[in-house]
Amino acid sequence: MTARSVVNLTVHGIGPVTRTLDPGEDGTWVSVTQFERVLDAVVGRPDVRITFDDGNSSDLDIALPRLLERGLTGEFFVLAGLLGEKGKLDAGDVRELQKAGMRIGSHGWAHRDWRRIDEAQAVQEFADAHRVLAELTGQPVTRVAIPFGSYDRRVLGRIRQARISRAYTSDGGRARPDGWLQARNSLRHNIGPEWTEQVLDGTPALPVRARKLAARAVKRVRG
Questions:
Q1: Whether the Cβ atoms of residue 51 and residue 145 lie closer than 8 Å to each other
Q2: Which residues neighbour 3 within 8 Å (Cβ) at sequence distance 6 or greater?
Q3: Can you tell me whether residue 196 is helix, strand or coil?
Q4: Taking the domain 6-221, which CATH number applies?
Q5: pLDDT tens digit sequence for 15-58
Q6: What is the CB-side half-sphere exposure of residue 128 using CA atoms within 13 A?
Q7: Domain extents for the chain?
Q8: Which are the contacts of 202, defined by CB distance < 8 A and separation ≥ 6?
Q9: What is the pTM of this model?
Q10: What's the CA gap between 84 and 93, in Å, rounded?
């Protein structure tokens, strides 16, 4: 039976840090223990999806074997313009993830805020990034994860023009399984067992849900 709603989780970096992090990036870097605890809670949950942003090398070195051990799959959103940089996935890594049954999507070219890019950068973020990943995987890019969860009406228009079938945000909460715009919940450095329970099974209070819905509505029409 199809779930009435799903919880999308977002993983960024896991385990030892192997490169210089961008400002604030340490806030979404989790330990191996924290990551494993989340995976264990997800096993047997068809209403939970696991996604990975930024194309960190821990996607392959740490996440992949632990996903396979538990019979889980993930969707990996790669920064096409940063492939092969220190601490990042390279082309061979992406192919290995795909060969293992993982899905590959785009996180853009250079981890820019899509609300702040000019036309030349937009070509990189959508056309160039999608071309590189399509050539690498042998499949067209049909899904994206929006960097920083930052979007407005103009960004959504560009995503639709790129013929994207699903776009992931960082809005939090649950989502409709077949929704075009998918809210996600980011793992953060300070999560504990109670976080996993609250996110997977908790029902936010009505005022909290109302605020989230209002925030999403504003994002869709601003710009």
A1: yes
A2: 46, 47, 177
A3: helix
A4: 3.20.20.370
A5: 999 899 999 999 999 999 999 999 999 999 999 999 999 999 99
A6: 14
A7: 6-221
A8: none
A9: 0.91
A10: 9
